[in-house]
Amino acid sequence: MSTHRIGLIGCGGIAGAWIRAVAEHDECQIDWAFDLDAEAATRRAEEVSGQAITDLDKGLASDVDLVVIGTPTSSHPTLVQQAAAAGKHVMCEKPMDLGLDDCRKMIDACEAAGVQLAIGHSLRFWGAFLKTRKLIAEGAIGTPVSGSIDRLGTAKAQAAEEVEPAADHWRNDPANTGGHALEGFIHELDFTRSVFGDVATVTCEIGEGRAVDGFVSPQIIQGVVGFENGAVVTTRTGSTVGVPTRGYWIAGSEGGLRFDGWGGPVELYRRDAEDVELVECEQVYAYHLELKDLTDAIDGVHARPENDGANGLANVSLGLALYRAYETGSRVSFTDGVADLPQGYRNLKY
After folding, report:
1. Could you tell me where the beta strands, DSSP code E, fall in the chain?
2. In 3D, which of 314, 337, 341, 321 has the Cα closest to residue 97?
3. Which run of H or E residues covers position 129?
């Protein structure tokens, strides 16, 4: 197998996850780290005994064969197309982009250049999520028919007069992030699709900023997702005051699965068993598995990575459909797993 030499584009917090993933991969090494912030590039380069660069063209002209892109979402389309034009395989952090048009351009650019494209949806490789997928593939619960995917954090109660504008950071503006469904919950949307397949319809309600007894409620996004195979899943994300309600369950034709923690264990309910079975999960670093899946595709072990560009586009499509369904107050339909949205549609508000 070949050794993959990697360029790191973007040296913020997520870069640390990919540095660890590369360190655990015997066939990979990071040659250089690029960032517009020279100090950030230097710090990351020192971690990997590589070179710090602030000229991306110079890095792309080197003999690395793979780049990892961990920059703000709005920069993804340009960077992916630039890397593809230089003949580099690409691992791009999620979300792929904030609109479907640029997602398609990224896919087309990589296909035209003959390079692999993977989008960083690591959650499907994480302990309990990975074990759940394996149990389903083994037929442990029959055919999945319904589920509930909840990722709700805990918020502090805020009095109306104490609410302050969000700090000036790119992540605080939905126009930059696509909103929480694309910035964070897109991980769970990806996992849901990995279990249930192509989406057929979506409805959604959003509760945000309601004044109740002098306090302001945090945002909650609640969707109902219908799949082409007839399965129905409820999805919820956002925050509640004081009570964390994270939890995931999947019901099948012959049993069910449930877990709360990402590391497991997974509760397995079999049709004929009186007691629940606790299934322990492998504690393998998800980013390592994700990187290996991409390098295996590069090396011809399989044709494409699980998290290829088409999968990334479908996840963005599902996130956007939640917002569109709320805006219009009507169901959003899908064609071949991709939402039927107006040309250029993006979420700029929620």
Report:
1. 4-9, 28-34, 51-53, 66-69, 89-93, 117-120, 144-155, 158-159, 199-207, 211-212, 215-216, 220-227, 232-241, 247-252, 255-259, 266-270, 277-279, 332-335, 338-339
2. 314
3. helix 127-137
Summarised one tens digit per residue, pLDDT across range 156-166 is 777 766 666 66
Q: Where are the alpha helices (DSSP H) in 169-285?
A: 174-177, 180-183, 186-196
Could you tell me if 80 and 323 are in contact, meaning their C-beta atoms sit under 8 angstroms apart?
A: no
Show the tokens assigned to 176: 């930059």
**Amino acid making up residue 57:** D
Contacts 24+ apart (CB under 8 A), 322-325: 322/181, 322/202, 322/204, 322/221, 322/223, 322/235, 323/179, 323/181, 323/204, 323/206, 323/347, 323/349, 323/350, 325/202, 325/203, 325/204, 325/223
* Whole-angstrom distance, CA of residue 34 vs CA of residue 48: 13
Q: Is residue 4 predicted with pLDDT exceeding 60?
A: yes
CA atoms within 13 A on the CB side of 13: 1
Token pair listed for 209:
């900023």
d(CA 152, CA 156): 13
Say how far apart CA 30 and CA 179 lie, in whole Å: 32
Q: Which residues contact 3 (CB under 8 A, 6 or more apart)?
A: 27, 28, 29
Number of neighbours of residue 82 by Cβ within 10 angstroms: 18
Judge whether residue 31 has pLDDT over 80: yes
Cβ atoms of 273 and 265 within 8 Å: the answer is no
Radius of gyration (Cα) for the chain, nearest Å?
21
Q: For residue 328, what are its two tokens? A: 């219009």
Mean pLDDT of 243-253: 88
Structure tokens at 264: 């497991």
